[in-house]
Amino acid sequence: MERTGINKKLLIVIPCYNEQGNIGKVLNALSQLSIPGVEITALPVNDCSKDNTLEEIRSHTHLYVNLPVNLGIGGAVQSGYKYAKKNGYDMALQFDGDGQHPVEYIHELIKPLLEDKANVVIGSRFLAKEGFQSSYLRRSGINYFRRVIRMLLGITISDSTSGFRAIDKKTIDVVCNYYPDTYPEPEAIILYHMNSLVIKEIPVVMKARESGTSSIGTFSSIYYMMKVSLGILFIYIRLKANGKRRTI
Amino acid sequence: MENVVPFKIQLLSIIGSLLFMFFIFRLIVKGKLREEYSIVWIACTLLLLVFAIWRNGLDIVAKMLGIYYAPALIFLAAIFAIIIFLVHLSVTNSRLQKQIKDLTQEHALMKLELEKKKLES
What we know:
The complex is a heterodimer.
Chain A: E1 8-16, H1 23-31, E2 38-46, H2 53-58, E3 65-66, H3 72-86, E4 91-94, H4 106-114, E5 120-124, H5 136-153, E6 165-168, H6 169-177, H7 185-194, E7 199-203, H8 221-247
Parallel strand pairs in A: 1-2, 1-4, 2-3, 5-7
Antiparallel strand pairs in A: 4-6, 5-6
Helix pairs in contact in A: 3-6, 5-8, 7-8
Chain B: H1 7-29, H2 35-53, H3 57-65, H4 70-120
Helix pairs in contact in B: 1-2, 3-4
């Protein structure tokens, strides 16, 4: 294994809420994965599921986090990041338990981190415009976030709601300190950028979910837009104020 | 002016304020209300008591503030106090939510560590 002399540790955090039909397949697919020079650990985080997700996870692995209280996807993912920090991982990757994220792209996703070209890498559905493109409503929401983020930060993120992302050690420290609880993805981009972390997007092809339902239903989409808009705005103002205070 | 607040209602408000104060004290003694929250309530009751005893107080204060209809002052003050207290509760609630999140994560991660130790031995 001493091919490059560096052996990096990667933690794959798999948040799952009521994913009994998908999680087994996801864990099987991840156990097949091997990347030269990288030691991979999969860590499913059961966010207090009401179905048999926990039993399904237990039948596959001993290494899992079982939250006694439902925290929402942000809180679940952050638990994984905290584990990564405690156990000295070099990289952490969020991989949704619904099977939408493609295992074959994990290597691509961590490549910029291994080459020190970025601190955060996001897998985007819209750079290649292939595979599952999400519903029209969701796409227009993503377009809106793209405009808001470009206006605030001056950078273009084509798929700000993608949860398929890899982060390095520096970013792990940031997200352990603060990470939004619900619908964290677009807000986290502001958090990363304002902490001067380099964000890079790579094209990925995603699948439609095989079973179960998305965490965002049609009824809650208006709430989602409002919550995320406020989240983006307030985290921007807060970090802007903090940054100013620091320079004084 | 003497007949603005009849004696009966004055007695009633004094008794009411005292009962409320007694109720708050009992909650603190029983440990059902933390002292920091009780301060607000004790202050409110004291204020009620002051105006229950000082019969013309309300009129005088209302005139000072230029409020034509004195009882409107009560509503204004009460609504203002309620809104402030509700915001305070929301802040407390947000803090509790964050603390619960941190505790939940810590607890789940410790359980995982324990499980790992068990498997090793």
